[in-house]
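Final report, closing paragraph on structural work. Over the funding period we assembled a curated collection of sequence-structure pairs, and we close with a single example.
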Amino acid sequence: MGAQLRVYKRRIQAVTATKKITKAMEMIAASRIVKAQRKVAASMPYATELTRAVTAVATGSNTRHPLTTEAEAPARAAVLLLTSDRGLAGGYSSNAIKAAERLRERLAAEGKEVDTYIVGRKGVAYYGFRERKVSESWTGFTDSPEYSDAKKIAAPLIESIQKDTAEGGVDELHIVFTEFVSMMTQNAVDGRMLPLSLDKGEDESTEKGEILPLFEFEPSAEDVLDALLPRYVESRIYNALLQAAASEHAARRRAMKSATDNAGDLIKSLSRLANAARQAEITQEISEIVGGAGALADASAGSDK
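Its predicted structure, as stored:
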């Protein structure tokens, strides 16, 4: 009985140590969410206005630019998948990977080949384990991305979409990331970055017969698009990286809180079992003492006779 009590005590000590670790990780993730949210909010105005500027150039001129014009028969697409470098974040990375798989199936059904670009060790490991081809990957900054990371990611993607498909280029550029909605809600979403699509408001104004203004650009609309579109892609990727980082911290905080709560419940359960084992041990000792005393009394009575 004493051995069983020692086993329970060791398990309680181990679970208590684990609970301290998960609690600390929960607090760290919670503190990082606020910083990540601020970065997301700070990046939104720039990304929004840059998108408007690019759209204005595209719609305000008669220039047919390869980065804003739909291919007649798109045959190849690039997909950028954002996952995390570290685990212990619940289903954060797996949800993003599933969204990328659904997008891949949809593009394949449309007759398009897919080139995959991945950010994060979890995504790289997933594709590596299945021996799938990855055009390029980046790791080491998913929990705290910088604009320089977005520029590094955007460079090969822009180069790929500027090439002809016969030379290994792509007709479309898609991105899959986890959108930060709130502390409790993060959604894996996909979207097309290029070719640029007009937003709903501009489509509606065209349908109503409103005439979009024509602008004169210096030196030319094509040169303006050449300068703006790389910045547009970089800003979209940077905003997605920031939202993904905030989502990762929120998912990790939620996962660690669940682990901490489960550890607390397990400690309570093990404590009850340990108390029961201790009580049984004490009861057994009392029974042995009473039995021994009775045996001595019987022996003394026999000797007196």
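Confidence is low (pLDDT under 50) at residues 200-212. Residues 221-304 form the longest helix (84 residues). We thank the funder for supporting this effort.
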